[in-house]
Design a protein that fits this description.
two-stranded antiparallel sheet; alpha/beta; five-stranded mixed beta sheet; 21% strand; Nucleotidyltransferase, domain 5
Length: 134
């Protein structure tokens, strides 16, 4: 009852809270149902900080493929085209124990060219590819 009339000195008003609580409970249930499920992204390897004695255990020769702003591809310091790059990578990784190649793209370069190089590296049989930033 929204208002209760007392017998005595005057009217006494009471607010009925039950409808407001019902509405709030319905809203809470609705918001719980429509909350999005957290999406799962791609698995990525995060680089770890080197240990104090890890300086001596660094790889002898890292393979770095650089793609310049002029869209020229370099394997370490040697400029080459994509077909030569794939054949060189196949030869290198046939005789090499390390299985990591680092790819560095220029800041102003579109990702399509870097993606072509990444595809070429995977096609040469390289299992792990790292992307380098500046």
């Amino acid at each position: 009852m929204a208002m209760a009339c007392g017998g005595g000195k005057g009217q006494k008003a009471e607010i009925n809270m039950r409808p407001m609580i019902d509405v709030l409970l319905v809203l809470i249930i609705i918001f719980m149902v429509i909350t999005p499920v957290t999406q799962r992204g791609l698995e990525a390897l995060v680089p770890k900080a080197p240990a104090a004695d890890a300086g001596a255990a660094a790889p002898e020769h890292a393979i770095v493929i650089s793609v310049g702003s002029d869209q020229r591809v370099r394997l370490n310091a040697e400029a080459m085209d994509l077909q030569t790059l794939q054949s060189r990578l196949e030869v290198l990784f046939r005789n090499r124990a390390a299985e990591v190649v680092f790819v560095r793209g220029d800041k102003g370069l579109e990702f399509q060219r870097v993606a072509e190089v990444l595809d070429l590296v995977k096609g040469a049989g390289v299992e792990r590819v790292g992307l380098m930033t500046q």
